[in-house]
Amino acid sequence: MRMRQRETAQYRYYDDGGPGRGNCTWGIGTLAHRGPCTTEELSMPVSAEKVEITFSQKVAEAERVVRKRVLRQALNQEQFDALVSFTFNAGQRGAESVLAKVDKGDFKGAAVGISRTIYITVRTRKGTKRVVARGLISRRAEESAPFREAKN
């Protein structure tokens, strides 16, 4: 998995669903809080050192989650890397059902679960709505591939 190449570093705060939409994020997909950034946050820079340290910590945490949740199935490196990438991006709660499927040996079900995790919630004038995050479509195809192709 080419996770570091896939992840673009932003040395500032930004709204992950576009200006005024999605969640306030910084660095390499680090959630600051739910909902758009404030004007003050949008003007705050983030150091390259902080971005890289936080990214490394988040990857290590995603690796721990995968190792803790997938105990009964042997994973090849490509599968492990895909689950780390997915867990990094979806969060532990967002990855729970997929990790449970993998642990039970339901690789096809896990592939479907990964592929369907392409929505984000954005704010609108009338509240919030779930929309497809186009950037997640190719990412999820890459992450689900090792499980679609598995002979399990």
Automatic annotation (TrEMBL):
It catalyses: Hydrolysis of (1->4)-beta-linkages between N-acetylmuramic acid and N-acetyl-D-glucosamine residues in a peptidoglycan and between N-acetyl-D-glucosamine residues in chitodextrins. Pfam families: Phage_lysozyme. Keywords: Antimicrobial, Bacteriolytic enzyme, Glycosidase, Hydrolase. The keyword Coiled coil does not apply. The keyword Membrane does not apply. InterPro entries: Bacteriophage_GH24, Glyco_hydro_24, Lysozyme-like_dom_sf, Lysozyme_dom_sf. The lineage of its organism: Bacteria, Pseudomonadati, Pseudomonadota, Betaproteobacteria, Burkholderiales. Gene3D superfamilies: 1.10.530.40. This is Lysozyme. GO terms for biological process: cell wall macromolecule catabolic process; defense response to bacterium; killing of cells of another organism; peptidoglycan catabolic process. Belongs to the glycosyl hydrolase 24 family. GO terms for molecular function: lysozyme activity. Its EC number is 3.2.1.17.
